[in-house]
Amino acid sequence: MPATGSVLLAPSGTDWSQYTTMYYVKGAAAGGICCSITHGALTPVDVVKTRVQLDPAKYNTGLIGGFRTIIAEEGAMALTTGLGATAAGYFVQGWFKFGGVEFFKVNAAKALGEEKAWENKTNIYLGAAACAEFIADIFLCPLEAVRIRSVSDPEFCDGLADGFAKMLKTEGVGGFYAGFLPILAKQIPYTCAKFVVQGTAADSIYASMGKTPDECSNGSNIGISLASGVIAGVASAIISHPADTLLSKVNKKGAGGTGSMMTRLGNIAREIGFFKLCTVGLAPRCVMIGTLTAGQFGIFDTVMNALGASKFHFHNPEAE
Length: 320
Fold this sequence. Notes:
The protein is mainly alpha-helical. It contains 13 helices and no strands.
């Protein structure tokens, strides 16, 4: 199974006819499944990470200490807070993100032609990831707002539907998009780094082995996909962490005072300080993002293959 983002040196030109609407639907479905599973499974880590960002004075003993504090005070079930919103939100986000990346990537490569696409594959990855993530975040933002509110205030709601109803009643539609700017600032760099770094890392691993993906066993390809996913996840987590902290803070009731969104974000950033903005909660986030990114690429490839889709890879015309 080829690693996601890796390059296959095909013996002939790309058959563009296979990239139909059904191909993009399969890519979107695989993306929804992989993101929902991985983000849902890591909900406990995300709960601790969010608590650390919201109250670093209380949760100052790291990831393991945060787990112990929450379990001791609220019980183990508190670690599943926001699970429904997380699973639903990231299925929708994964649908548009992975499906969108495939759509924009394939069509850009088709428009440019194989030679120019090969020469500009990094730029294509960046553009495809940014466009896909912007669309995905329009749908993710309301679910993320409910999730963060429920994590920061366990008494806020009894579930996803209840949380939506309460936020709509008390804050209106605008409340769901209070964190839209920071979520864009977090997710777009994260997704761009995620696809570029994973693809580059996978290619480097194959190059060091002197092999292409189709010369390796399925087990080896999965291992490379997972390893490159971890590298991409950690890089993405570091790049997007400041915005992630702002997103967690701005969705907490009363955070940043009053005024416009930019005013509130500026107040929060000044209150926290640049160093803490970049570092508080970073270790658990690296663990979470590194793990889930590796899992996402592995699951995505597996589901695509199960659905009978032959995933697009950039083709080097000079390799023929």
